[in-house]
Amino acid sequence: MNTSKRQLAMVMDLNKCIGCQTCTVACKTLWTGDEGMEHMWFNTVNTLPGKGTPHGWEDMGGGFDAEGNAVVGHIPSRKEFGEAWKFDHEGSYYGGKGDASHLAIAGEPPTWGPNWDEDQGEGEFPNTHYFYMPRICNHCTHPACKEACPRDAIDKREEDGIVTVNEDRCRGYRFCQAACPYKKIYFNHQKKVSQKCLFCFPRIDNGVAPACARQCPGRVRFVGYRDDPEAPIWKLVEKWKVALPLHPEYGTEPNVFYVPPIGPLSFDQDGDIDESTPRIPDAYLIRLFGPSVLDALATLKAEREKKRATGESELMDLLIAYEWKDMFGGFDTDPSTVSVVKWTNAS
Amino acid sequence: MQSIHATRRAFLRGTAIGALGLALDLKTLRPVFADARLPPEAREYTGYRDVYRRKWSWDRIGVGTHSCTNCASGGCSWNLYVRDGIVWREEQGAPYTQTNASVPDYNPRGCQKGASASALYRSPARIRYPLKRVGARGENRWKRISWDEAFDEIAAQLVDTLSTRGGVGGYCENGNNSDFGPSWIAMVRFFNQLGMPITENFASTGDLMTGATLVLGNPVPGGSSDDWFRSDYFVNWFGNPMSTRIPDAHFITEMRYRGGKYVSVTPDFNPSAIHTDLWIGVRPGTDAALALAACRVIIDEDLHDVPYIIEQTDLPLLIREDTRQFLRESDVIEGGRRECFAWWDGRKRAVVWSASSAQFEQDKRTLKLGPDDQVELEPRNARVTLLSGETVKLSSAFTLLRRNLEDYDANSAARITGVHANVIRRFAREFANAKAAKIYMGAAAGKILHGELVQRATILMCALTGNNGRVGGGWEEMTFWELDGKILSAFHDFPSDLVPGDMNTIYPALMGMGAQQAASPAFISGSLLMLLNGGTYAEQLNPAYNDPTLRRTPEEFLKEGIAKGELHNVPGEELGSPDVIFNMFGNPFRHRRMGERLGRTLFAKARLVVDLTLRMDDTARHSDILLPTAGPYEKLGFKYSVSYPPYLHLADKAVEPLGEAKSDWEILSLLMQRVEAEARRRGVRTVKTYRGVEYDLSQAYWRFSDKGRIGPHEDEKFMRLILALSPATQGITMEELRANKGVMRYTGVSQMGKMWCGTSDYRPDEPLVPYQDYVVRKMPWPTSTGRQQFYVDHAIYVEVGETLPVHKQPPRSGGDFPLVMTCGHTRWSVHTLWRDVDILLRLQRGEPVIFVNPDDAARRGLADHDYAAVHNDLGEFVARVKLTPGMQPGQVHIFHAWLATQHVGGRASDAITPSPTRVTNFAGKHGHMVNEVGWFDLSGNDRDTRVDLRKYTA
Questions:
Q1: How far apart are the first and last CA of chain A?
Q2: Where does residue B845 fall: left (phi above 0), alpha (psi -120 to 50 degrees), or beta otherwise?
């Protein structure tokens, strides 16, 4: 039931994500610096396995069941996302207390944050495992947030499927927060509106890839229309089937896809290499991406071996991205060449 | 499908109804624009989307990078989006073109620190005007003063000191946190012209790879990072490039997709382990045993490259069995050369003097063997008659190596390293059989006591397999794209007299600097200054924290080195009582182990401590006058030129300095004017430099400013001088740089000796591979033997059993405690910079954490996020516990460079790291092993520190 003529999408390659959070910061400095938005991170990166952002979001409901029925959802609290902690810089630098004062977090010590369980992972040494999972709004084809909104304040753009909160119409009922199974919607307690990732539509409208993608030094993210057979998104999702949506069972038909991680070799009880047991348990990856993840991993491994042996593989060449601009499905305009509307008198 | 209303009700069942009551009318944003003075191009508010369109807007775009950081990325291009006169946001410029079609391009570079640099430069920690201390040092009480007041007081103190004690009455603490441009030049020119020394901290921080100096004649070898992509077997050893080389990490993940294998050798399963094919969790500090066991497998299974070993290494050279020293020509021939070494010719049954030797006839020096040469790698019954008439037995270094490796069979090494013997064998075979195998050595290899041995052992793996000098292969740490013009602009008295591009004037000028440096103070060893005068003598020389197999105390080695004059430039006792200390580009309270002791020693003795600083930090807190320096967006500079990206990066001045901050060049220009004026006012003329050379203080500014030709606001002249005088930037102009987003590919390599990048010809359309001069052109390596030199016959090395690389058990540094505290660079900061930026702290836990294995924590009653007191003989510091099964049992890890002020109790981990002295660092005056800053110097270390943890309650 796609209401848009075309759909923009993103593919994130988890084998290239290094957890550096440049995407997170790029998004933060662009969109969520205003008062009321300090605690918001439209883009997050979490260490998996882990509880993520907000804490335990995978158990918070929302989305649809196999029959298409809405699933009860919890509205994540600010505490579950993590507050924007304030630090006493003034007191620490100029308070006159020397080493007796330190750069403390004001108020109650926090118990969670947007990247609280960074690099913790699971398993037992030496068979520890983890990887990084960047997340934005999935700009779903079947957006639960939109269906849930009594104000019709969630827009899905006809031309490219970008889902945005219409802040003019939003009255802060927060049905969308309950309905989104990915818990990627925040609430602005000052403006009393829901706010979330906008797929950088002002950039998209000027042919520029979203900040999280264009600024990614790991070259993790591909951008483009899903139906463009010449571009990487279609090839990775439809042709090679190595890019999969996160939790497809949530029923919202996400438009962000992930190339699953190939973990390192694991060790047996004696510390020798155990070729038969993957370090990242298959069951865990299946829980995240569904059973087809195993086929995707097999394809990746086979093509990697083919590239090694013959030097040829369309899939590997795509993922390598010899030319960075090719990752953006035509949204490769240099932002410094865009002439934006001037909103101030300053020069 | 249910109706939308039903869906909505279902979503909300069980959620807080109270949320509904929160709804308020969203105020239209129209009033913001309801101003009659709207610019003509501004539009009326048309809907919520305009709010976001407005956020992504700017008045103009500048180009820049973060030159004023010790970020070893080598540079990233940033567009600086300016609104209302401030940089509100930065985004990568991404102007890099592919080197050639066979490798990925360098775009977009950058990291989360770069992306939040404007937040750092506007942060509360930033110093906005000159400050003078009003409380006790470290108490954090300040008053604002004017620049005039600051300059008057500092100039008066400088003239007092210089006119009474001379240059020995003060010094400048120097970090590596400067640009490769006017800021660094300002510091060097200022203190050089005043005759006061500057500390050099390459070794003090543990970044100096003395093992690489010994073997390769280059402490930090490397090429460009797009060469990583061409590797078939990329080994990260000791490092964490996925966190610390964020802009270059993609070459590793993409190398995997090319079919190459990625292996990582680190004790913990760190962020650079997760994308490997094989991660080897070696016990902390046992890396040399792993490398030597791999060498044993390689040799035993005949996987070594014999022709390469014979041509390129010292392993065929002959060692006297009686003395364990190289056979030298001077042993055999009257008037023979000392730096002349021999191999055994199987046909002639005699020694042949190696034409690669450092003192071989200069015009005949080569690694190339003659057609009749028959070098025996393992001669039997080799003998020679000495001058004394005595006949001695000779063995090749290779024979001795084979004997040494008998101790490192895979099973023995497994017991030492905790790595299964089969894993060792597999690793060795895969490494040797790869078309191109590379060892990317992390800087931590300089930060354990026996790191020098790890370096030598791992370079040996590369040499045995012929990988050093191979495309996509070889051992590398990190090198520099040196800008000779920067060196000249700093050290040459009158750089404007040099003719740009005219190598006939530039080279003699560079050569002449050696002599000048002998007379001028220039750099002194920061690690020796700390050891001798910083209050750390007892801990650093404590035999209990050192190698237990030493037969003498470390202090005896130190005293012997000083007595023999083998140590370069020992900071004397007089410098231990400075009147004036300056600090620039660093935070010695943090970057020296036990650095806080400076507050009780050198700083306590100084009448005046001046810190030129961007922001408040541990050292600033213990200073007297803080002079606010301009941030990188606010002044001109070039980025510190690491070789990985072969591009020069311009940091242009995009905006005016924050508050009253000034560029380093302007500050020191104005201060030097005051010093000169004050000297004239008092009639002070002749004073002495640190080295006792007389000069005229009343002419100090004239000399500093290059005969008045480069004024306080003319720092761009230095930028142009650097471009014109550096072989690496010939043909590049400021205008072109500005037109190219501040980024241009280097056009050549530095010719400053056979170091840094200058070991290969450079082609702009090929990734840079080091050592082509030696491996392809057969020019001798810059070592005594002219080969990759694994054998070291200095008496200390013979005494301590390290003539060849061996494994030595890690010391009990800090006492006999059960846990090893490792440390490393974090993804979250560049040393202490960015450590206290709010938006980054919110992406961590906001406080210092120490990583602990869950079992180790449980045994101590510690849960996740508990405060722990981390303690040993030296004391304790406090951090939050973070549990992860990625930490090896028995290992705890603290990412470095938390500011002391971020810890409960005000102490950071460095306070309890005793940095024991490596006694071989006290050797010198032995061939290419010259004890000198930046080459072979006392290395700081901390990764062997033993600790225990207990629950901390305030």
A1: 47
A2: alpha
Q: Is A103 on the interface with B (CB under 8 A)?
A: yes
Closest to B278 measured CA to CA, from A122, A17, A126: A126
H-type alpha helices, chain A: 22-31, 78-81, 89-94, 144-148, 175-179, 201-204, 211-214, 232-234, 282-289, 293-310, 314-320
Ramachandran region, residue B722 (left: φ > 0; alpha: ψ -120 to 50; beta: rest): alpha
- Which chain A residue's Cα is nearest to B241? A18
Expressed as residue numbers, the domain containing B367 is 306-402+771-797
Q: With a CB-CB cutoff of 8 Å, which residues 237-256 of chain A face chain B?
A: none
Amino acid letter for position A144: A
Q: Which residues of B touch A341 (CB under 8 A)?
A: 41-43, 53-54, 57
ipTM of the predicted structure? 0.97
Residues sharing a CB contact under 8 Å with residue B674, sequence separation 6 or more, in sequence order: B151, B152, B154, B155
pLDDT in tens, B430-465: 999 999 999 999 999 999 999 999 999 999 999 999
Q: Nearest-CA residue of chain B relative to A24?
A: B112
Q: Read off the pTM.
A: 0.95
pLDDT of B13-44, one tens digit each?
444 333 333 333 333 333 444 445 555 555 56
Judge contact between B905 and B878, C-beta under 8 A. yes
In the CATH scheme, what architecture does the domain A8-85+112-337 have? 2-Layer Sandwich (3.30)
Indicate the residue of A1, A95, A316 with minimum beta-carbon distance to B257.
Answer: A316
Whether the CB of A144 is below 8 Å from some CB of chain B: the reply is: yes
Tally of domains in chain B: 1
Q: Contact B73/B644 with Cβ under 8 angstroms?
A: yes
Contact A341 B125 (CB under 8 A): no
Nearest CA in chain A to B107: A324
Three-class secondary structure of residue B87 per DSSP = strand
Element housing B151 (H / E) = helix B147-164
Is residue B385 in some structural domain? yes
Cβ-Cβ contacts under 8 Å, B8 against chain A = 70, 147-150, 175, 179
* Sequence spans of domains, chain A: 8-85+112-337
Place of tokens 């005759």: B195
Q: Measure the CA–CA gap between B184 and B389, rounded to whole angstroms.
A: 57
What pLDDT score was predicted for residue B26? Answer: 37
* Contact criterion met (CB < 8 Å) for A167 and B51: yes
